[in-house]
Amino acid sequence: MARFQFPAxxxxxxxxxxxxxLACTIVGSVTLLGxxxxxxxxxxxxxxxxxxxxxxxxxxxxxxxxxACWLALYATIQAIGPAMLTLWAVHPARLSNATTAVAVAVxxxxxxxxxxxxxxxxxxxxxxxxxxxxxxxxxxxxxHTDPLMHPLRLAASTALGxxxxxxxxxxxxxxxxxxxxxxxxxxxxxxxxxxxxxxxxVICEDDINSASSHALVTHANSFVTTQxxxxxxxxxxxxxxxxxxxxxxxxxxxxxxxMKRLQQIDTNLRGMELALKSTNSFPVNxxxxxxxxxxxxxxxxxxxxxxTKHGAxxxxxxxxxxxxxxxxxxxxxxxxxxxxxxxxxFLFCAKLLHNTSFTTTSxxxxxxxxxxxxxxxxxxxxxxxxxxxxTNLVPAIKFSISLxxxxxxxxxxxxxxxxxxxxxxxxxxxxxxxxxxxxxNVKAQGTVLGTVYGVLGCFVFEKFLPIRFVSLLPWFxxxxxxxxxxxxxxxxxxxxxxxxxxxxxxKNFGPPSEFAIARIIETFIGLLCSIFVDLIFMxxxxxxxxxxxxxxxxxxxxxxxxxxxxxxxAGKTDLEDNIRKFRMQVNELRKFVxxxxxxxxxxFLKFHKECYNKLLGSLSNLVDLLHFGDHALKFxxxxxxxxxxxxxxxxxxxxxxxxxxxxxxxICSSIQHLEEIxxxxxxxxxxxxxxxxxxxxxxxxxxxxxxxxxMLSILGxxxxxxxxxxxxxxxxxxxxxxxxxxxxxxxxxxIVLSLSALGFCLKTIMQEVMQIEECMxxxxxxxxxxxxxxxYEISCKLYALYK
Length: 803
Known about the structure:
The chain is mostly helical. It has 31 helices and no strands. The longest helix is centred in the C-terminal third of the chain and has 39 residues, at 745-783. It is globular, with a radius of gyration of 31 Å. The two termini are 56 Å apart.
């Protein structure tokens, strides 16, 4: 796999570097070697370079660049139009440092205020860069500034950068997102099928032992990282493909990638891996997995491989499809012990794998967007809540102050070079939260690296202008590697590219060293202003937000577990909404953890990243387990709902429902107390509150309170297994009492698999919650190193204090 990734990385870097260098060469040829009339019109060559870097640097395709043309046009109208009116009404000669900064801040507020759904991030960056240049350079030139032609020249410079980007993506051949998606899809499909083959091999081999089985499962798990990157790459080209649609129609091309189906297959494979990881011994019990079942799994493997390869173009006869899953209809008896549940769950996931829809015809999965009906009724507060939800009011205020302060301080230091303080802040605008110190650090390092390289290039090739652009090619390769690295990322890579291009792509502007020093100083002024404003508006650290996100995730887990039920209304359930919400919270928590890992500690306690990564692993497993539990319950609820008047009278069904309710109560009780502990500031503060309110010290032993704290760790592994065995016994009674006819064997096998899968999910959920308890104990110990931690006692104290 390493031999595959290394050339692919270099190929991507070289391709990106070549097209970036080509675009820079086009701009340089026009601005440095073009006729005087064009050079007079293109008075902002620096922004031509900045524009093309913003468009092309992040592995842009033709669709991205074609979209960027319209975004740049929109951004120019949004920035240049009001600027022309402002400069015409108030001549630049009348401006001052303060009024220029205010004008920039107000214009930036208007640009940033619309939500990202209505205005693209690229359009905002181009607009903000134009705003800084049009006002600051207009003020710096004073009476020599033409209020009308000055903004138009900036618009022409922007257009040059956009046209250069478009030509670079067309020559020597178009770089189409469609081709990349098809290529990535083929690699992803092969990887997923190989992963499936390994998993089926593990459970079907007769001579396999535990060591070799774990090695094979680890091998199957090694595909996950690559598949995740391929998924992200395909989904990330969604908008590009839309913009390439007219071109595809002209050349009669098509793009069909069943992303929804592939994501379903990936989820089912994760379930099969989870089953194998929970299997205690290999080979699997031959009584459960007989030769017919093994042959059926091999047939299923061939069937999924065939349908995944041919997709919608393959028509599978219904008889052949049904024959593929006939082997799953031999399960007519519930497992008698929890040790057999992983095998049943594996086969349940295999059934879901076969049932995966073949009808998905979209290239990628479209994100659900909240739609507001124009005819919706509501009071005034709801109306304003909707309006505020579609804007970035607080981010717009924060960013406008940040940019205005950067411009003011930059002009105070140097009127001629003042725009270099605001320009990096403007073109690096991001929506949402950003790791403030890390972002500023990588931008500063990238700027310095690129500027130093540019100065060296000018010194070595002082009289050979064409060679300067040739010298940019290796730097673009290096910057492309930087932006793919975890240390620098896109922000550092873009800063490095711009730093080099702005020096190597200029002439007759004085010594490069003086220009480099002035630009570095101004850049640092802008970054310091940005950090200062971020600290004022965003005092919460990422570690604090991670703690809050953990608490919210625990609340949603409790709500999800509470939604479990054997008898309910068939169709969409609350559990689906809770799972969707839970998945979003886990993804958000993951972002906070990544940010907290690179966040400087200063005088704060070090972030316990190892513990949070363990928690993320358990939470991610819980998302999958709830997903599979929902699938199992849907069939059970559908079957019970069809004859609910009869089944409600069955004592066995009611007893099974009570058994499930008892397990739910145990899990929810533990999660509830974990959530309360996660919100606790510190043990010291808790003890002070108890002492201040004079609560009896006997609560340490739970004597003087009605503390109902229940932790699964108290129940223990053996207790969990006993609870699941009891659930299986009740399930056996239900199956035997309701399905005893010969014509109900198929239905009986489906109920057996569904109840077994639910049992496995319940067991594994309790084990994961126990793991979360251990991590929570470790986390509390980390924050209170001098205290002896007992979660039960802490929970009782919290109960006595707040109940």
